[in-house]
Amino acid sequence: MTAPLAGIRILEVGTMLAGPYATMLLADLGAQVTKIEPPGGEISRKVSDSYFASLNRNKDSIRLDLNSQEGQGRLGQLVAESHALLVNLKPSAIRRLGLTYEALRRYNERIVCVAITGFGLNGGDDPAFDYVVQAATGVAALTGDPDGPPTLPGYSSADNSTGLAAALGLLAQIVSGRGGQVDVSLRDVMLSQLNYHASAYLNDGVEPQRRAYGAHSYYVPAQMFSTADGYLALFITHDGFWKSFAGEAGIAGFETMAERVARADEVRAVVAAALATDTAVSWEARLRPLGIPAAAVRTLPEALKATPEIVVTAGDFRLVGNPIRIADYQPDYRPPPK
Question: Is Transmembrane helix set as a keyword in this record (predicted)?
């Protein structure tokens, strides 16, 4: 099958994670992505070969000094024959290097220019690394034990989420048939992902709280539980799930969600006592056939071993493949550009 994005030409001036991740997903789906790198190469090449490969497979690369007249001339030629340009730099650098729609429309009226920044193209140049944005938007304050310090997730959730949003914005503007500027910030993406927490505060004045074992603010029981060996994530969202779980765990009562929410501490204690009688892996095996959402906590190596189909080969690198599965299409994974 022809690749879904075959014929789409995208330029990238990206560093580290958010921008390169966005364009890599598009390249996996058949877009021709040309990575514009400065003399000396994009900075993430210096992290490690495997790090660079995890964000830049399936791309071509060209070295341009965008601070030079010659580099700017070549950029104009590339823009003239491309559908989109995606960049993630500070707003001042984006403008100084002429990487906005207003600066590039003279080469191509239909070029789509996507800017990934910390706080928006008009939001200033304050440093906006992933962890800083998680702290600034309330994510860290919601994560961790309530009696402990705020905690950062163990991966770059802001960068990855922003990359996905930027790829969506890029494709949406291409589909519209119009050129233009697309502005995506890490701050806005993370606040958007706090959707129901933000709505509860904005509409009902309910301020979100950090809860033990990551307990959900609406559903009970929906959190981590300690077992005889390991931890189990249990997510009971309606009375049907509860009925099946309670029958398997030997628990009586609490038949409605309203009752479980009203007696949340009591419910959690009863569930914790029941789950402590068996291991997390065993509980998962018992509950899954009943249709109950439950999973033992696994390490990344354990998760990768359990899902070999997600691991792909790109040259000398083994990587996690594209998560978007399209019928009758299989990406051809190429190694990152030299």
Answer: no
